[in-house]
Design brief:
By secondary structure, the chain is α/β, with parallel strands linked by helices. It folds into three domains: 3-93, MurE/MurF, N-terminal domain (Udp-n-acetylmuramoylalanyl-d-glutamate--2,6- Diaminopimelate Ligase, Chain: A, domain 1); 97-320, UDP-N-acetylmuramoyl-L-alanine:D-glutamate ligase; 330-481, Mur ligase, C-terminal domain (Protein-Tyrosine Phosphatase, Chain A), CATH 3.90.190. The chain has helices at residues 3-6, 52-57, 82-93, 112-125, 154-166, 178-182, 204-207, 210-218, 236-244, 292-307, 312-320, 348-361, 380-391, 407-415, 428-438, 467-481; strands at residues 13-15, 24-26, 36-39, 62-65, 75-78, 102-107, 130-134, 137-140, 143-145, 171-175, 193-196, 229-232, 249-253, 260-268, 271-278, 281-287, 330-333, 339-343, 366-370, 394-397, 422-424, 444-448, 455-458, 461-464. The protein starts with a helix and ends with a helix.
Length: 482
């Protein structure tokens, strides 16, 4: 694509030859190739300007920079914010494909993945071809593509948007992380609707405090990013968005006044049951999904679907069709009758949600296997230990993704909040095996933190690993012994 097309509408200064054709985009020098544009990103752990020379050696013919780089004989595009410009350039490079899609952004600390899965199913049952972008990867009309980030970087993201258009997608449901908002990955995209699920502690290693973390999420709810919003009225930050932001809004909830709400709520081993009032359309629902958190998720999706005119019958059928969400309250039964649950919960509030539900349906012991991510929010570690102590009978502390941080340091900080009997088993598979050996009929083993992740990150290496595969293999081995 010609450089002038890529820079259309972008405030910049071009130094050097502007009459060039760009064949590809990249922001990592290792991915540079002949006739590419290399975008120098600032912040994070490195400054991309320091890698520009290497990118040019590999064939880059244009650089996007925030400062002029001397002694480089290629075109330089000077901008004030290279991250925001990368998103706009990527959009142009892929022929503004995203403008042909109806983008539904989902924002919140917990519940984003479940919300996108449920919404995609509802809209598919209403006759639309859908796609999902999130922490479990990208799904386009049922086809799965693996990604490494909840919200992919703009170059990858817009490439997938173009593929979605080619495959006839109408609606795409995308998890928009707080990091994605901060790094302006969604710049140039106006969502048809944006959902807010909830807000609780996470990522304080990056954002510093809850006020900054909240302001980043809240900052997405403007006309620059969305046309209409669907808000959890029971959440304190949700209330601020409702009353402070000047956007068309539909609300949902259980305790505060809302446009969409539920009464006669019940949760049991068979699922969730309630009567929904969907903008005065009253309907009794019984879903396979379990836990009060899924009452919120299904209310949210019902409100969203009604915004687009989908009938309650189609909403019900779409939600009912979702029998499992990979890595979210995913349940297995051991040979001896013990229940084993794998869940992605990795925040104090996420722990409360899943463990309160599991405690309510567990007749025997509740055994929790968990750890915390290394090089991440250290403040939540003792809080998660405290939640487990309040709701569980026994804990086995193990590795999550320690990354570069010493394993014992992470565990020791969790132990500061732990007051119940526990054991420490650093190898995650061994920890799960020990929990299964302890559990009997009527007991529940909750394995928290990783969900559907397919790796562990230890000392900088990503090692193939899956909680789900581990549980299935251990249960199968136990069956084979019998």
């Amino acid at each position: 694509m010609h450089l002038t097309q890529l820079l259309n509408g972008i405030c910049c200064k071009v130094i050097g030859n502007a009459d060039i054709v760009i064949d590809s985009l990249c922001c990592k020098s290792s991915e540079a190739s002949p006739n590419c544009m290399f975008i120098c990103l600032c912040g994070g752990q490195a400054d991309g300007h320091e890698y520009a020379y290497k990118a040019v050696e590999s064939g880059a013919i244009a650089l996007v920079v925030e400062r002029i780089l001397p002694h480089i004989n290629v075109t330089q595009v000077i901008v004030s914010d290279s991250r925001a410009c990368m998103a706009l350039i990527a959009k142009h490079f892929y022929n503004n494909a995203v403008d042909k899609l109806r983008v539904i952004s989902v924002i919140g600390t917990n519940g984003k993945t479940s919300t996108t899965y449920l919404a995609s199913s509802v809209f598919a049952h209403a006759g639309y071809i859908t796609a999902i972008v999130g922490s479990n990867g990208i799904f386009i009309n049922g086809q799965h593509y693996i990604t490494s980030l909840t919200t992919p970087d703009p170059i990858e993201l817009h490439r997938y948007f173009a593929l979605m258009v080619d495959m006839g997608v109408k609606y795409v449901f995308i998890e928009v992380s707080a990091h994605a908002i901060y790094y302006k990955k969604m710049e140039g995209i106006i969502s048809t609707a944006t959902v807010f699920t909830n807000f609780s502690q996470d990522h304080l290693d990056f954002f510093g405090d809850m006020e900054h973390y909240a302001s980043v999420k809240k900052g997405y709810f403007t006309t620059a990013y969305t046309r209409i919003c669907v808000i959890n009225a029971d959440d304190a930050l949700g209330q601020k968005i409702i009353f402070e932001e000047k956007l068309p809004c539909i609300t949902y909830g259980l305790t505060c006044p809302a446009d969409v709400f539920a009464i006669n709520c019940a949760c049991d081993n068979d699922g969730i049951h309630y009567v929904i009032n969907l903008l005065d359309d009253v309907y009794k629902v019984d879903y396979n999904l379990q836990g009060q958190f899924n009452i919120y998720n299904t209310l949210c999706v019902s409100a969203l679907a009604r915004v687009f005119g989908i009938r309650m019958e189609q909403i019900y059928e779409g939600i009912l069709a979702v029998r499992r969400i990979e890595g979210r309250n995913e349940t297995f039964i051991a040979k001896n009758g013990a229940k084993v649950v794998v869940d992605f919960a990795h925040t104090p509030d996420g722990f409360v949600n899943i463990l309160e539900y599991l405690k309510s349906i567990t007749k025997g012991k509740l055994i929790v296997v968990f750890g915390c991510g290394g090089d991440r929010d250290r403040f939540k570690r003792p809080l998660m230990g405290k939640v487990v102590s309040t709701l569980a009978d026994y804990a086995i502390l193990t590795n999550d993704n320690p990354r570069q941080e010493p394993q014992d340091q992470i565990i020791n900080e969790i132990v500061c909040g732990l007051t119940i009997e526990h054991n420490i088993v650093y190898d995650r598979k061994s920890a799960i095996l020990q929990a299964l050996d302890m559990a009997n009929d009527g007991d529940t083993v909750a394995i928290l933190g990783k969900g559907a992740e397919s790796y562990q990150e230890i000392s900088g290496d990503k090692i193939p690993y899956s909680d789900i595969d581990t549980v299935q293999s251990l249960i199968s081995a136990d069956i084979n012994k019998g």
